[in-house]
Automatic annotation (TrEMBL):
Family to which the UniProt record says this protein belongs: Belongs to the cytochrome b5 family.
Source organism of this protein record: Halomonas mongoliensis
Organism domain of life: Bacteria
PANTHER family: CYTOCHROME B5
Protein name: Cytochrome b5-like heme/steroid binding domain-containing protein
Domain Cytochrome b5 heme-binding: 40-120
Amino acid sequence: MNINKIAYSAFVAFVASLATLVSIQALSSSDRDAADDDALDSITLDELAEHDGAESCWKAIHGRVYDITDYVPDHPTEEEVILEWCGRESTEGWDNKRPGVPHSARAEAMLEEYLIGRLVDGDGEPLEPEAAARAEEGDEAGDADGEPARLSPAEDERLHRALLGLPLDGRYRGVFSDGGEMQVNVQFDLRDGRLSNISYRHLAYRGEDYRRLDEDDDLYPVWAQHQQLAEALEGQPLTAIFALYEPERLAEDIDGYSGATLRGNKVHSAFRDALNRGVYSWP
Ligand code: HEM
């Protein structure tokens, strides 16, 4: 055997051992994942959907659920980019931070620090991302057997109201943006034409996030007053949003300084945007 042949055989043996190592590694990591997942807490889409904002932000990514509440302020984009996916099956967003570009391996390693469970269906079986996304959309295309979905009596009623131009009962979300900045993002429910569960998913001005201010911050009264606006509208008929044009009718203590920044009309605009967009979900 000449030197070349020896070198070639040694090279082939080296490549073969590398390939074996790689496949052993692949096998053991997938085994480990499966075993780990069985040990994780089971979380349903309904439970996931309860954590849909900055106060508590859970995301389902590739079948696992992560509580990334603490990470949201550190994410290297505007918060809306990442908040939009809270409470949802987020694999699509994760795999496409920009269209076609997934997050880096470093980001993946960070994500695992926030692991809290695995996504399951109503029977406790693992729920794949595609099935979860379809379930969130209400599986509009049809049922599991491929039958076209029929209108249920509730849907029929909704269609009837929509045709008459009446706002439908349901959960709404709407925003007011100006100068390229989202300033108000409001969520509310409508029941028999009355408002409930009003909350701000976002409230900011010039990069200052009012929801994160400390009580001793100069701007804190602005946040407090916006909360008063929401409380005053709670249980009121939808038409009460017109009072937002005169916020002093709804909020107390509007002094000169904070009065200048309390813009009830922005909140009004976000409500109108929500109504224009139509029902966001049927809670
Ligand atoms: C699922 C919703 C998410 C969306 C839509 C999203 C979107 C983005 C965007 C647009 C960027 C900046 C653009 C770029 O780097 O090219 C980015 C970067 C980054 N994101 Fe996210 N992100 C999401 C969730 C997360 C989560 C949950 C984490 C970590 C726990 C995370 C960690 C990072 C990191 C570390 C970067 C820096 C770039 C990289 O390492 O890939 N992101 N993301």
